[in-house]
Amino acid sequence: MQHESWLVKKDRVWAMRFFQDKHSDEDGTTYMRVHYASCRLGFLHGITPHVELHESEKLTYEKARALWRSSVETEWEVSEKPLWKTL
After folding, report:
1. Cα–Cα nearest to 3, from 33, 29, 37
2. Of the candidates 5, 35, 44, 61, which lies 20 to 30 Å from 22 by C-alpha distance?
3. 35 with 53: CB under 8 angstroms?
4. What whole-number distance in Å separates Cα of residue 35 and Cα of residue 15?
5. CB burial of residue 54 (10 Å; 0-12, 13-18, 19+)
6. In 10 A of CB 80, how many CB atoms?
């Protein structure tokens, strides 16, 4: 995984953004963040308006990698482009 990656469910209603957390723990452990979002009109193949952000999850790199792999093996596909604007 790179510093930022995107997955979109094959029905294009749900998406996940994986990215490196800006803050590491005191012991230097680096974490990944996963943002979950939906778009009832369906995600486009690029920046999509009317996206509803849901929860954010902080995971170790290993857990994020496992989530990525299991998602891609089921109903998710990699988006080559960002799906919503981020700050």
Report:
1. 33
2. 44
3. yes
4. 8
5. exposed
6. 9
Domain spans, the chain: 4-79
**What type of residue is 29?**
T
Backbone angles phi, psi at 20, to 5 degrees: -75, 130
State phi, psi for 73 to the nearest 5 degrees: -75, -10
* Type of residue found at 26: E
pTM to 2 decimal places: 0.89
Of 53, 51, 50, 38, give the one whose Cα is nearest residue 8: 38
